[in-house]
Each structure stands twice: as C-alpha cells, then as structure tokens.
C-alpha cells in the first residue's frame, strides 16, 4: 500500500487498507524510501529517543501507524524505541504490538491495569526507558509522524522542548466547530499568566512534543488528565522552546481520553499551577 499522507486522505488510506496492512518492517526498507535528514552524523549517534504512544481501543490504527513512524525515524539515524502504553483496551492491541515487537524489539508494549488518563500513560512510558530524549504522540492519526524528524532536529540543535503546535504560524486546528475552537483558545489564554517569560508556548495543550529528560528529572507531575505539556512548561527546567506548525488531523479509530473528569482534572491542575506560580503553595 502507498505511504500514508497527513490529512483526511491519510485516514482514508489507512481505513481502506487495515485488513491488508503488512506490519513487518526493516530499517533498510525505510532508508530506501525516505530521504536522509539534515541532522549531522555525530549528533545522530549522541542521543536516544523514547517515543511514547498512549492507546485506548486503537488496535486498528497500530499496524499502519507503527510501520509509518519507523519509516520516518530510521532515515534520521537516531537511536530510538517506541513505547506503546495501553490502558488495558482488550481489543487486540496487546497481540498486535507483541507480534510487531518480536520482529522489531525497538517497539515495546506496556499495559496499565485499572488506570486511565493520558498524562499518566505518558509518564508510565517515560519511567520505563533510559532515553535522554522523551516524546509523545497520539495513536489516532491526529498527529503527523512526518513531523518527527523536524522535532528531533530542533532538540539536537539545542532546544530543551520541541512542540508540534496548532497555534504557531502555519499550524491548523482542522475541522473543529466554532464552539470547540473558542473553548480551545480560552483554555490556551488561561495558561498565559502562569507560563514563564522566554519559554512560553502558543500551544501548551498539544499532545505531540519531544523534550530532554534532564529538564524534568526528579519532578512530580499530575498523573490524571491530559495536559502534561502545560505542567512541563510551568514546572520544567526549560531554557528554550521551539514550536513547529502542526496541521491537526481527524480521529480515525479509538476512544478519546477526554471527558468531564478530565476537564475537572484540568481545572484542578490550573488552580494548582497558579498557586505554585504566584507563591501560594510549595512545589514538589
């Protein structure tokens, strides 16, 4: 099947070919199909990336997504592993990822029992790797894997945090209705006073980013909810942030982790971060 394309056509191609996708993949195959990144040879061997992909009933997406991500990462030349953190979906995710992992040990499966929440899943993955560069992206095809080389290049160029941003120049929210766009903009606006000057992000709510482990080592983060990046921006030891334009796609398969409880968790997180930022409580 042809290489996936980012937008609705990418989702259509994947949904039409799920039953026929060959999940097997070799680094040589990816190198033959994709151009080399401009990341220098010495820099490519100096760092290791751990990309966490949280999943909740997204088994149908995984064969094509994992193949695509590897085909994008291999030409960069960086040492990497992909951590699929599943919230016990019981939809075939474990069997699919385990089969791929047997062929390519760089793909690993971690299953959480009796737990839910995007931030907690990401943190769980990061705790199970020794990589110096940590990353996260969705499994529902809303984040384009082809942006990964640029995010990696931004980190290797010296930035502490590289973000796939919907709100920077060139980024797009996709086909959101006006109410959702307003709520998203309001949520971003509410974070501006607590973000630190010099390392503010226009899209602190995105779930597609890479960062250096040293910027968060030893810090405790809220495991509930799904706005981990905001807490990293406020509490992390960051000196530089790079935002790259992201064209936000449509969900193909899977269940959203956003619900009323997650919204409530976000409200509580905002209150706590405001209190910490302005000296009303003690940081961890």
Give the H and E element order. Answer: HHHEHEHEHEHEHEHEH
Task: Write down how many β-strands occur, each being a DSSP E stretch of 2 or more residues.
Answer: 7
> What's the architecture in CATH terms?
Alpha-Beta Complex
Task: Kindly estimate the percentage of residues that lie in beta strands according to DSSP.
Answer: 5-15%
Q: Count of helical segments? A: 10
First and last CA, distance: 49 Å
- The residue-averaged pLDDT reads 81
Shape: globular
The tally of structural domains comes to 1
Structural notes for this entry:
The model is unreliable at 1-21, 31-38 and 40-46 (pLDDT under 50). The longest helix has 18 residues, at 260-277. The chain has 10 helices and 7 strands. The chain has one domain (40-277): Spore Coat Polysaccharide Biosynthesis Protein SpsA, Chain A, CATH 3.90.550. Helix content is 36%, strand content 14%.
In short:
The chain has 10 helices and 7 strands. The chain is α/β, with parallel strands linked by helices.
